Amino acid sequence: MKLPLYFLFLFLPFIAFSQEPVTPLIHFDNVEAANAIITLEKAYNVKISYPNKLIDGKTVSLEEKKRTLNETLDELSSLLNIHFKIINQRYIVVNKAEEETFNYQQLNTVIINEYLTRGISKNMDATYKIQPKQLDILPGLIEADVLVSLQELPGVISPNETATGLSVRGGTPDQNHIIWDGITMYHSGHLFGMISSFNPNITQNITFYNKGTNPRFGERISSVVDISTSNDITEKINMGFGFNGISADAFFETPIIPNKLSVLVAYRKSYENLFETNTFKKMEQKVFQNSSILDNETSEENFHFKDYNVKLNYKLNSNNTLSGSLIHIDNDLLHDYQDFNNNIFYQDYIDTENNGYSLNWNKNWNSNVKQTTKVSFSDYMLQYDFVTEEDNTQLSKFDKENKIRDFDFSTELSLHNTLSLGYQTSFKHVGYSFVETTDSPIVLDQNDSKINTHALFANYSNRQSKSFNFDIGMRANYYRQLNTLRLEPRLLIVKNINDNLKIQASGEIKNQVIYQIDETVYSDLSLENKLWRLSDGKEAPILNSNHLSLGALYHKNGWSFDFDSYYKKVTGISSLPLGFYNEDDTKYLKGEQNIYGLDFYTKKDFKSIKTWISYSINQIDARFDGINNNRYFTASNEIAHAISASISYKTKKLQVALGWKWHTGKPYTLSTVNPNDDDVSLVGVNTERLPNYHRLDLSSVYNFWFSKKSDIKGKVGLSIWNLYNQKNHLSREYTGNNIADDPVVIQDYYSLNLTPNFLFRMYW
């Protein structure tokens, strides 16, 4: 019998355990950098020399684990923005990071080291950096879900309570550019978006842009979520496996050629076909609302998901490194139900996959000139089939398909770590179709299009002044099939008022030619009803965003304050993605949005307790030709006010976090029902608002060693989502065309009920 891959992972620790080198146990919790270096000198029997000015006032936190010397130095280099140069086995010197670093990117000085908690920092270039392996516990999470973790940041919210439904400063989820090891991802969630499809146990860094985006990034008008695994050559075997209330996973990392070549393999899979937990049941109930799965008592469904990753890192020499990455994401649902009265059998099948491949080459020409070259390919496929049978004879079949082939090549030169110049080309082939078959196939709707984009970009970063820093850049996109050139200037300014107070201002223009629309042909299952399509420059215009922001940051004595105001002008949007009713739902109505917002965050650290609270204001005014008499109205994705608060407690082994979220309800269009014929009529556009949303989340984890002499570390955790079981009304939607054969149907969607989750993990 063929043994599943995830069972093989269970035996890997025992095969490789004897090869694991003995390393010191290193743990820092907000320790002064000078004291941390003293600890390292004793632990590794080395001598570290450093200029005091490089580490004065800096603190460091490292998760308790056994590390080699190089692993510890690599982590401290990233946290402290310094470079450790090993002279010999005994002596190490510390230099400025920009003098020695191989990374060609601009020096990314940390402004706030522990923004919400350990493992999250805010940087000089206005980015947020999240390190899942270092991340302390967040409310409601027992593992650092890549996309859910972002929702703790000010101005980021998921109104539909999913991992993938990220709304960043009033944007929509498809306006976020999600990248995994250089690969553009088009499917980023498991269980229809409830959890992210990126394994947090192998994720090294998440860099999040919500303003002042570096011009090397294009393609989306809202945010950039740049996710990466480690590019370092591992010196020893690392492995781990575990399970929670939804899935089980394992990873294995080992050197193949010492100091030259290493490989990382990871696998994750749901196990509800073996045992369905209460956690999985609660998520299913939320996901399958208003679908035929819950509406039919005779329904049977078989749902599972999986993802796996392979990463190779190769060091040719001191000036050249290569890395290759592979990711596979797969979600499958088979749903059967039967009408026994008429002996009719129905079957739904959904298969959603995203495969990605990338190759990255870093070249150090000399101390002042660096180059990086990337090639990637993303392959996305959504396939939905609905079959009707009577007496084992097929009566009809409905097929929906959406495919994307995305090839990307880029190369970038960095000069003196201040000026970068680059070129990027991408080729996208996107198509969708709806086909109904009775006696013969009938194409209900289809689209097939291609766009080849060429882009030149440049960025200059000034980090020389202690009081004034800036980034200024430009990106030029040429869309060949549309014969259109778009320029995208980018600007970020940071003014240091004093050591504790900084003023930030930014401006950027972005364009987007691939986005999601609501399906033009309604399917009964009501799942995965978003389709990717390309702009044609006419009925489906290019999305354009002009984004300005102004804010301030203050950090002193354990207090942190972050205030940011912004304005966005978005043009080229269509009526279909907005979710409000349109009598002619196959007609694209061009429109625009004005988005105004304010994000505020404050945090106070005590010895073992961290507290923070954030507040966001968001106003989205939308206007479309032919709707609401061409007047502005409230967009359906507006969350006018949102509050998030948390308190956490941490000891050496135990972490507990409690968090509360509140926000105003989403706008919706009022409906009235005719008592004579039950016809639904719609009044105005988004003139009403759903009740306010609120919930309380709790999470806790406990870390332990299996024995004092063992290298095996364990973790157990428990979380409760929606602790007081609040029933929140998430959205109200309408389907149908309001005609005799297809009347308008009201669909209400509600939040996740009280949902516990658990975790057990072992790793070396």
UniProtKB/TrEMBL annotation:
Q: What is this protein called?
A: TonB-dependent receptor
What is the annotated signal peptide range for this record?
Answer: 1-18
Top-level taxon of the source organism: Bacteria
Upper lineage is: Bacteria, Pseudomonadati, Bacteroidota, Flavobacteriia, Flavobacteriales
Domain spans labelled Protein FecR C-terminal: 26-93
- Cellular compartments per GO CC: cell outer membrane
Q: Where in the cell is it found?
A: Cell outer membrane
What would be one Pfam family of this protein? FecR_C
What keyword terms does UniProt attach to this protein? Cell outer membrane, Membrane, Receptor, Signal
Origin organism is: Yeosuana aromativorans
Q: Could you tell me which InterPro entries the record lists for this protein?
A: Beta-barrel_TonB_sf, FecR_C
Q: Which Gene3D superfamilies match?
A: 3.55.50.30, TonB-dependent receptor, beta-barrel domain
